[in-house]
Amino acid sequence: MKAKEISLPVDDGSLTALDFGGTGHPVLLVHGSGHNAAAWTDVAFHLTDHCRVVAVDLRGHGQTRIDSSNAEQYWHDLAGAARSLGWEKPVLVGHSLGGYAVTAVTAGGRIRPHAVCVVDGLVLNDREAAVAEQRKWTTPEAMDQVRAQFRYGWSAGPDQIREFIEQSVREAPDDWLNQGARPGLLRKVLERSFSRHEHSWLRRPTPEQIAVISAPSPDAFVYPSVEVYEHLTCPVTIVLPEQGFYAARRAEVRAVVEARHDRELVEMDTHHNVPMARPAELARVILDLIPPNRLATGE
Question: Which domains does the chain have, with CATH numbers?
């Protein structure tokens, strides 16, 4: 589907976003680490008959030019994006890193959403264990790992980029992350992950950006640990894929869900990359969060 590229002013710059249009209750879609707004294209296709849909490129990702200088900016920005759109009480949907982003911006009181949908983007450790886990992603070894595995921070020319994208599409059926994704969608996401940098093109995020957002202050009120869910008072739906990152911790996920009556767990037979592998199923979950009187009315 055709989306309009828009700019959403935030505190110190702007986020680039894809406006998929539609009529009805506002839905803000937030991608995971290494992805960008294009990853939501097929989900948005199933939403726009009923909702007003925008997907953002987080700092350091896609076509957004600003980077993070601290660990909280990228999720703080979601409040600025909602203000720029003139939205009140949107449904927030986040995948992977974006799942924590929509959780954090709600827990911090920067947005009061109608509902939150977290797609395989959970934080389940207590703060002490979480601090130790976060530090792992700030080490030189971790940065080398993401460079080698995903080519984040890779500076390349147009021919190299085309070759990389086509190889990724060919290998997608056997790729743990991209299996089941529509080839054209995978191309869009990969193309959008490169931005012009000096005399070449840079694949984002860079490992350095991953290290920055992985280093929140251990004393922060909102921290990527399981205690963050205590600050969520709106309806929450958690999507847990059977082959996802948290499938082995189902009991802990259920404990988060059972802590409040307005939370729901939806399990799917797929892998981590739910938005690209199971867009229609995920769209149905999101539509269930829309107030009945706001479906396709815009009221």
Answer: 4-294 (3.40.50.1820)
